[in-house]
Amino acid sequence: MTTEGPWEMLKHYNIAAVMTDSPAKENLQFLSDVIITTADHSFIRFHGRNTKRHYWYNYLYSEQELRPWVNKVKQIKEQTKTLRIYFNNHYGGKVNAMQFKEMNGISLSPEELAVKL
What we know:
This protein is of the alpha/beta class. The chain has five helices and three strands.
């Protein structure tokens, strides 16, 4: 009997490995350095990079911080059917979500936007 590694086990059960962007001090960089798709769907979580109190919930990304993710998103979309991207849980997260959509060439009409939000 062989023992599967974590990535192989996730692939076997079609469970998505979640890629993250989070504060460097959390030491989660390995989750975002390498593109790993383990299912027919993928998730990216943008937690923010604050190092202050409540840093995971109140952060506005700069375009420079988001730019490297544009290419990663293209790579992930080639490897999976569905990609879901979540920005931090702060009410201001929708600003970065809209900015990132534009950076990836995705636009919505005002009617579509009202339904999606």
